[in-house]
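Students often ask why we bother encoding 3D structure as a string. The short answer is that it lets us treat folding as translation between two languages. Here is a chain of 323 residues written in the first language.
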Amino acid sequence: MPNWLHSGATEPVARLVRDNRVESIHHGVLAVVDAQGKKVASAGDPKVAVYPRSTLKPLQTLAVLNTGVELTDLEVALTSASHSGSKAHQDAVCEFLLNYQLSPGLLQCPADWPLDREEHLAMMARGDEKNQLAMNCSGKHTGFLAACQHKGWELDTYLSPVHPLQRAIITTVEEYSGEAPSQVSIDGCGAPLLGLSILGLAKAMARLVSEDSAHSRRIVESIGKNAWAIAGQGHANTVVIERLGGIAKIGAEGLVVIAVPSGFAVAVKILDGSMRATTPVALDALRSVGAIDEVVAQTLIAQTSEQVFGGESLLGGLEVTLD
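And here it is in the second language, the structure alphabet:
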């Protein structure tokens, strides 16, 4: 069983600079693996365990497809998504439910507002209340329900760790990561949450994007066709998928996985839970091993890195500090 995350297992991976002075430093741990799951780069101790949060969604989608349920490409993407809760996302999830004769009332994720401020305000202006459809995991929960409907499994208990679907998800995670979960907890959306090492998480994503199986290919292709559904226009995951293909998936508390079509994959955990360093660090790690083109990497890092302003003057920004 891997050791759990601790400060001594991490190292500085990024810093925020204002007027040529370091204002903040982000410590983290990461692992980069090739298509065969061999570690080719790391920072900190990649064998420490973390809660992977929503980075596990593509593996949960794989378990859903393994039930035999037939989903459209958009539905596959929504099942894998941490969407922004826009009206377009809510409408798509609602249609997803209706396609399988399911009611929004069956969703057991918490009610929420859209992540983007403008969408939040627009929803309030329409007189709408926060709801389960707007919650960023509503697509995943709908995928869970569709699989249970297809198999004839109980719908009311679909989040129970002993439910057949959740047992199938655990089996899938174990198979693809090569390790048994070190801890089982509950995610923010109410679904079972499985502790994994950063290295195991990277290996799982590398296998998912590189193996020649119908369901794995379907997940990658569906996400590529519907990158907007995974997060939202302008969001880091969507931007990376549109440019690189493959899979990009954030997880709450400073996590991201990026797996490119060649099979290389990186998993990153930022110690303090901040999200702002995750994608730039992951992209630079992939660049460092030649998994993505230098110019493309630098463009994407610039697109996804926070800038620092003094009034309206640009004074600095986030800098990746990997060796």
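Translate back mentally: The chain has a mean pLDDT of 97. Keep this in mind for the problem set.
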